Amino acid sequence: MPPLLTALAEHARAGAVAPFRDGSMDCVFWAGDWVRLRTGADPLAAWRDRLSGKLACARAERRAGGLVCAIDAQSGAARLRRIDPAEARPGDIGVIMVVAGRRRLLRQALAVRGRSAWLAKIGPGIARAPQAIAAWRLSR
Question: Is the dihedral of CA 124, 59, 76, 69 positive or negative?
Answer without folding.
Answer: positive
